[in-house]
Amino acid sequence: MEFRVPQFIDVQDKIFGQFTFIQVVYLAGGASISYVLWQSMPLIIGLPLIVGILTLSLALAFYPEERYGRPFVAIMESALRFYLIDTKLYTWKQVPKIPKKDSGQKVKNTLSVSVPNISDSNLKDLTWGLGVKKEIS
User: Which of 2, 48, 79, 120 has the fewest CB atoms found within 10 Å of its own CB?
Assistant: First the structure.
């Protein structure tokens, strides 16, 4: 007995003509916010805001997911989380200086390969390497 396996189950259904439900929500939300701004603000102040909101709603609705493998709303969420919410850990790796070759002198190879230290407590070594002074037990 053969069963048909559904294909392309991650494709959203077209509900309103050629638009999906979420596209209609983004477009209607952008249009309604733009209309409220147009009615409530002077044109010189409201026009840049209206253009920005309409551009954002068009990008949310029609940005191709295949470009970066993620929908635009996920990219925008990640960017906002990175810049506004999450704490950042900055690390710095020192690059050894290579001496310049002189005309008559031989230059020794100063580059060395660092081999990780294997010990009983790799977690403690890692915390000390990150500059964390608190001991974890």
Answer: 2
Please count the structural domains in the chain. 1
**To 5 degrees, how large is the angle CA 103–CA 104–CA 106?**
100
Give the number of other CB atoms < 10 A from CB of residue 113: 4
Which structural domain range is residue 77 located in?
A: 14-85
Cβ contact 27:19 at 8 Å: yes
Q: For 23-77, what is each residue's pLDDT tens digit?
A: 999 999 999 999 999 999 998 999 999 999 999 999 999 888 878 788 888 999 9
Give CA–CA dist 98/100, Å, rounded: 6
Residue labelled with tokens 């635009």: 72
> Which residues neighbour 76 within 8 Å (Cβ) at sequence distance 6 or greater?
60
